Amino acid sequence: MGIFDRMAAKDHEQVIFCHDQAAGLRAIIAIHNTTLGPAIGGTRMWTFSSEDEALEDVLRLSRGMTYKAAAAGLNLGGGKAVIIGDPKKDKSEVLFRSFGRFVHGLGGRYLTAEDVGTNVHDMELVRMETSHVTGVSRALGGSGDPGPVTALGIYEGMKACVSRVMGRQGLEGLTVAVQGVGQVGYHVCQHLHREGARIIVADLDPDAVQRVEEDFEVQVVSPPEIYAAPCDIFAPCALGGVLNDETIPRLQCAMIAGAANNVLLDEERHAGLLAKRGILYAPDYVINAGGLINVANELDGYNRERAIQQAAGIGEILTRIFDLAEKERVTTLQAANTLAERRIEQIGRIKNYFAGGDAVRRWK
Ligand code: NAD
Q1: H/E element, 14
Q2: Do 330 and 338 meet the contact criterion of CB atoms below 8 Å apart?
Q3: Residue 299 is part of which domain span?
Q4: Any domain includes 353
Q5: Mean pLDDT score, 177-201
Q6: Is 200 in the same domain as 299?
Q7: In this structure, is residue 355 part of a structural domain?
Q8: Atom of ligand 1 at shortest range from CA of 238
Q9: Is residue 63 part of a domain?
């Protein structure tokens, strides 16, 4: 399939190929949709096995950002960038500054941030060339580590799930199994501990396990055991693709609410499988939007209070999604997609309406 056909397949607006031989830069920026505002999305640096794979990834991820920003109620569109290279070997000041110039050339249509393979330091290099970058350190007026704000969104999302499934407020006395206690998982445990929930954890990294054991009251199980741990909520906070044909039948929970991106191996099929098992699934891109909300807040001058307040609204957004899923008898994932699409369509219509009105007035 040609590149225009691939863009047309998922309705992408623009794809930019960035090349700077002297800097060793080969990057692709994809802008999926800017109806709601400038396209936001991180820069992923990865040793893609082919240019085709890099293009596929950036097209898929940029579209995902459109839905995430729309569902979170942000006035932002979806975009993403990939830099082809080994993050362990190929990083340099000149590479990121060259990339920053390409971002700058887009005049604010695309706003970048850190992602897999890039970090706050890399974004500070990008920032030397453009202001269209978020996720820089607190010292430079940025939002710093998004983990705590993401965790707050997860916690609020858990409460919305519990209210829907059990008709009760709060998590006191409930059991939550947290898979992965890194940047986000640790702070999720902190909320759960404060609220008096029973916490089961698993992590491949013994240091991460030790940290939560020292700070909170937790029961530790081995990574393979976490799926079958009897609990009310399973909170995947590690990697994507962990909910699949093999793991879903083993789950002993009533709700899924966690941070991991792309947690369903096959989105539609596995959302359906969870629904069939009667497990309420909080769609990953909605419940983990606290990180995006945090960096988006940098755009108007970072304000922690405002970011926290917005992330706390994730519970309400999920409640609307659960209502729609019930009303239209669809999975919660389909309902989330529908809400995001409707928002883009409706806001797009207002924009067109007023733009048209203005043009007509001018013409008259
Ligand atoms: P992290 O790397 O700090 O933590 C992940 C933890 O999971 C690590 O401690 C790792 O050892 C553990 N882990 C990996 N595989 C595991 C397995 N099979 N079983 C148990 N533990 C395992 O990452 P993070 O920033 O906490 O992010 C966690 C997830 O949430 C990721 O999928 C990320 O994409 C997503 N996410 C993060 C943010 C954020 O603000 N950091 C925002 C949105 C989404």
Answers
A1: strand 14-20
A2: yes
A3: 147-341
A4: no
A5: 97
A6: yes
A7: no
A8: 7
A9: no
**Which of 46, 120, 204 to mutate for ligand 1's pocket (most ligand atoms within 8 Å of CB)?**
204
DSSP-assigned letter for residue 85: S
Angle at 271 between CA 66 and CA 225, to 5 degrees: 115
The CA 88 to ligand 1 mean position distance, Å, reads 19
- Interval 251-303: pLDDT, tens: 999 999 999 999 999 999 999 999 999 999 999 999 999 999 999 998 888 88
Q: Measured from the CB, is residue 135 less than 6 Å from ligand 1?
A: no
- Residue 22 is part of a domain; what is its CATH number? 3.40.50.10860
**Active site (catalytic) residues:** 80
Report the separation in Å between the CA atom of 258 and the middle of ligand 1, taken as the mean of its atom positions: 10
pLDDT in tens, 115-148: 889 998 999 999 999 999 998 888 888 888 889 9
For all residues of the chain together, what is the average pLDDT? 94
Q: Residues 161-184: what's their mean pLDDT?
A: 97
**Quick one: which atom of ligand 1 is closest to the CA of 202?**
20
Among protein residues, the one whose CA lies closest to atom 42 of ligand 1: 291
Q: How far is CA 315 from CA 89, 169, 252, 337, in A?
A: 41, 12, 23, 17
Six-digit token string for 286: 């909605």
Distance CA 28, CA 202 (A): 36
Query: Is pTM beyond 0.70 here?
Result: yes
pLDDT on residue 359: 43
- Decide: 238 in ligand 1 pocket, CB within 6 A: yes
Total domain count, the chain: 2
Same domain, yes or no, for 54 and 36?
A: yes
Assess contact for 237 and 180: CB atoms under 8 A: yes
